[in-house]
């Protein structure tokens, strides 16, 4: 972003644009955190690595797709590349999410939450370091090939809005509408809400709890993959899988889930955009070095002042 | 107490002094032994590995106080280490300028690493006192931060607290990495007032040029004291209060344990020890960089505690030793395997993959860790007595 001598309105619009773009990604990741928390009551630490996986799988698929088409030399990108890469990444990450739940978390269904948290940290480290292997993605940063042409769609107050930004802001909105419909209008969604409300009662009412949990993991992982795809598309430069930046992005998304009210799907969406905007407003108008500090400061404030989040309901601990 | 007073023997005051002083004497003895007997015997490389083991033991045992005894889950331990290292480094670096005119070694034979050549000088130099003061200040600064981090634990449980500690560690990293460039001219240092010097800690490049003081003596002195504190704490009423909080916070509170106070105390003590470890580390390497002390370092310590046993001092000590040696072992193994493999098929660094798999399997098969709450010596008692 060019910060020299631009007029205040342009700066504001650009900041809001950046904030909404990254906020949409946070929201998509936060949905996975919040849905898993709603049902299993634990923080799926490995979720940020599913997001990383999504970005890297997008890179792999995009590189392959362009090679198939010979587009690197021809200059054109095939039209089908964007949906194919996106769906491929979502499918693959959904599978990985399913496997993580089956192999690592399911054996611990009855264990204390702390054990599940430690397992999640283990899964997270495993995904990062397997991703670093040379046979997988390798230990070096890569750059995402351009799937979309660098076309300007419109100007808002003099700020250029490329087609990438429209996709990055639009796709999360579309996916979130889809998720709203899924959770509040379908039988699966009803089952998810029932399990989240009271697992045992839901099981007594004939809900297959294990299947609902698996479905939740697949859904959350697919959304994280979509966020990863958008990240790769917008920011192009992908750090190696075990790099700190990935975990920081995932953590900020988690903060978004907490700020919105963990366990609350609409809260996660709201929190995602709030955190994205806060981060970029802080960078633009305060000290850019402290962009991570703002987010964690908000987390600590929310946890101390309103632990249930913006939309959450306070739970009373029963003895 | 009254029973002891009736018994024959030294007066209670002396017994008390002995109970407090003996560990210090033993610790100094251990340190001297490591410095003058073990170091010349094992050579420079192995001595360095021993130092790394010692620092990791301090970190693991200190985290055991929070994660094991008290049942809180902190994953920001490297943040305390970084704070301690920077605070100690600031004192010894700028203090050396003020006292000796340059940030150079000014200690005695106890702080001299044998691999640097022969040493002719006093037993204890002025620099040693500065170094000890730096370690204590590092610990105290970290302890202050531990107090701040402990406060949210009044309201937060389990995974929320984990996230807050992680966030704390990252905030520490970012703040330390955005400090100003350090001064390296004696005249500049002399012209700058103290409060401003504490802001000039090298920023993103790390805080470099610290004098080397950390030797096997200092590290194992600290290790012995840390172990004493941890083991005695576990048996004391304090330790039982910690363990009560771990088992059931509500029940502990009902029995009169001031849970918030004890949780904050656990954090403060653990942070102090981690700060000392950071100070030792900074004066071992001669520099400290917050970028290297992010959550990955914190996770390493967590892994030691979890694998060794949540609440076992000896277990986490053992885990720290094994997990410090493991990378060296793995490096030799993969190195020798790789000589037979073509470059494209060489084995990568498998350390973290093994750790993470161990973590997952441990949680599924033996969630309390190898030793659980037990110590190694408790283990033997449970077995049948050995034939005489």
Walk me through the topology.
The complex is a heterodimer of chains A (319) and B (388).
Chain A lengths: L7 H33 L6 H23 L1 H4 L6 H25 L7 H20 L9 E2 L8 E5 L2 E4 H23 L1 H11 L1 H6 L4 H27 L1 E2 L5 H17 L4 H21 L5 H15 L14
Antiparallel strand pairs in A: 1-4, 2-3
Helix pairs in contact in A: 1-6, 1-7, 1-9, 1-10, 1-11, 2-4, 2-5, 2-9, 2-10, 4-9, 6-7, 6-9, 7-9, 10-11, 10-12, 11-12
Chain B lengths: L1 H5 L5 H58 L7 H24 L25 H25 L7 H20 L8 H6 L2 H4 L18 H20 L1 H11 L1 H6 L4 H27 L9 H14 L4 H26 L12 H15 L10 H7 L6
Helix pairs in contact in B: 2-8, 2-11, 2-12, 2-13, 3-4, 3-5, 3-11, 4-11, 8-9, 8-11, 9-11, 12-13
Summarize the structure.
By secondary structure, chain A is mostly helical. Chain A has helices at about 10-40, 45-70, 70-75, 80-105, 115-130, 165-185, 185-195, 200-205, 210-235, 245-260, 265-285, 290-305, and strands at about 140-145, 150-155, 160, 235-240.
Kindly list the characteristics that best describe this protein.
heterodimer; A: 319 residues; mainly alpha; two-stranded antiparallel sheet; two-stranded antiparallel ribbon; 12 helices; B: 388 residues; ABC transporter involved in vitamin B12 uptake, BtuC; 15 helices; 69% helix; globular
Task: Describe what this molecule looks like in 3D.
The complex is a heterodimer of chains A (319) and B (388). Chain A has 319 residues and is mainly alpha-helical. Chain A has a domain at 33-247. Chain A is 71% helix and 4% strand. Chain A has twelve helices and four strands. The longest helix of chain A has 33 residues, at 8-40. Chain A is globular, with a radius of gyration of 20 Å. Chain B is mostly helical and 388 residues long. Chain B has a domain at 24-294: ABC transporter involved in vitamin B12 uptake, BtuC, CATH 1.10.3470. Chain B is built from 15 helices and no strands. The model of chain B has no long low-confidence stretch (mean pLDDT 85). Chain A binds chain B through residues 42-43, 104, 107-108, 111-119, 121-126, 128-130, 132-134, 139, 242, 244, 247-248, 251, 254-255, 258, 289-290, 292-293, 296-297, 299-300, 303-304, 307, 317, 319, and chain B through 71, 73, 75, 152, 155-156, 158-160, 162-164, 166-168, 170-171, 174-175, 178, 250, 294-296, 299, 302, 306, 348, 352-353, 355-360, 363-364, 367.
């Amino acid at each position: 972003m060019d910060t020299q001598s631009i007029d205040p309105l342009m700066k504001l619009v650009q900041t809001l644009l950046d904030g909404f773009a990254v906020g949409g990604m946070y929201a998509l990741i936060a949905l996975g955190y919040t849905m898993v928390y709603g049902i299993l009551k634990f923080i799926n630490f490995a979720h940020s690595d599913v997001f990383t996986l999504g970005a890297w799988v997008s890179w792999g698929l995009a590189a392959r797709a362009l090679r198939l088409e010979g587009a690197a030399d021809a200059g054109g990108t095939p039209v089908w590349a964007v949906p194919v890469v996106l769906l491929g990444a979502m499918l693959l990450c959904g599978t990985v999410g399913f496997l993580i739940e089956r192999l690592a978390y399911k054996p611990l269904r009855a264990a204390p939450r702390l054990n599940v948290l430690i397992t999640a940290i283990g899964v997270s480290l495993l995904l990062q370091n397997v991703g670093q292997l040379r046979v997988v993605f390798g230990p070096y940063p890569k750059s995402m090939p351009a799937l979309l042409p660098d076309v300007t769609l419109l100007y808002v107050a003099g700020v250029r809005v490329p087609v990438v930004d429209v996709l990055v802001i639009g796709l999360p909105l579309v996916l979130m509408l889809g998720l709203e419909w899924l959770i509040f209008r379908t039988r699966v969604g009803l089952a998810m809400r029932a399990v989240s409300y009271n697992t045992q009662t839901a099981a007594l009412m004939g809900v297959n709890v294990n299947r609902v949990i698996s479905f939740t993991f697949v859904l959350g992982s697919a959304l994280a993959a979509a966020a990863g795809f958008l990240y790769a598309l917008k920011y192009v430069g992908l750090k190696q899988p075990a790099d700190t930046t990935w975990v920081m992005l995932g953590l900020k998304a988690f903060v978004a889930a907490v700020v919105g009210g963990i366990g609350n799907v609409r809260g996660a969406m709201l929190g995602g955009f709030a955190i994205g905007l806060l981060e970029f407003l802080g960078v633009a108008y305060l000290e850019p070095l402290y962009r991570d500090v703002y987010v964690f400061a908000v987390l600590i404030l929310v946890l101390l002042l309103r632990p249930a989040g913006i939309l959450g309901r306070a739970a009373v601990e029963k003895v | 107490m009254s029973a002891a007073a009736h018994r024959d023997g030294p007066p209670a005051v002396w017994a008390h002094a002995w109970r407090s002083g003996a560990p210090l004497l033993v610790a100094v003895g251990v340190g001297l032994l490591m410095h003058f007997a073990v170091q010349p015997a094992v050579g420079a490389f192995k001595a360095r590995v021993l130092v790394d083991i010692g620092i990791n033991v301090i970190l693991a045992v200190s985290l055991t106080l929070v994660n094991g005894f008290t049942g809180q889950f902190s994953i920001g331990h490297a943040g305390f280490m970084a704070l301690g290292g920077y605070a100690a480094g600031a004192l010894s670096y700028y203090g050396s300028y003020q006292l000796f005119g340059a940030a150079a070694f000014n200690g005695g034979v106890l702080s001299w690493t044998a691999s640097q050549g022969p040493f002719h000088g006093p037993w204890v130099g002025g620099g040693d006192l500065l170094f000890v003061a730096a370690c204590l200040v590092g610990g105290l600064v970290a302890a202050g931060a531990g107090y701040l981090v402990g406060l949210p634990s009044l309201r937060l449980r389990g995974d929320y607290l984990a996230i807050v500690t992680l966030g704390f560690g990252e905030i520490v990293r970012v703040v330390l990495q955005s400090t100003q460039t350090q001064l390296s001219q004696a005249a500049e240092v002399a012209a700058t007032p103290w409060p401003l010097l504490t802001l000039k800690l090298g920023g993103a490049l790390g805080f470099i040029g610290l004098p080397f003081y950390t030797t096997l003596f200092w590290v194992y002195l600290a290790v012995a004291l840390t172990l004493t504190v941890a083991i005695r704490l576990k048996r004391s009423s304090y330790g039982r209060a910690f363990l009560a909080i771990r088992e059931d916070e509500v029940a502990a509170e009902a029995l009169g344990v001031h849970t918030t106070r004890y949780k904050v105390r656990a954090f403060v003590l653990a942070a102090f020890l981690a700060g000392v470890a950071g100070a030792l580390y900074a004066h071992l390497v001669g520099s400290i960089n917050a970028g290297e002390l992010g959550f990955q370092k914190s996770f390493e310590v967590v892994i030691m505690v979890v694998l060794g046993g949540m609440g076992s001092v000896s277990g986490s000590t053992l885990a720290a030793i094994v997990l410090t040696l493991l990378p060296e072992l793995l490096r030799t193994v993969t190195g020798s395997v790789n000589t037979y493999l073509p470059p494209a098929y060489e084995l990568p660094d498998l350390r973290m993959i093994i750790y993470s798999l161990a973590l997952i399997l441990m949680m599924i098969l033996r969630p309390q860790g190898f030793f659980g709450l037990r110590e190694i010596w408790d283990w033997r008692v449970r077995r049948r007595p050995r034939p005489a």
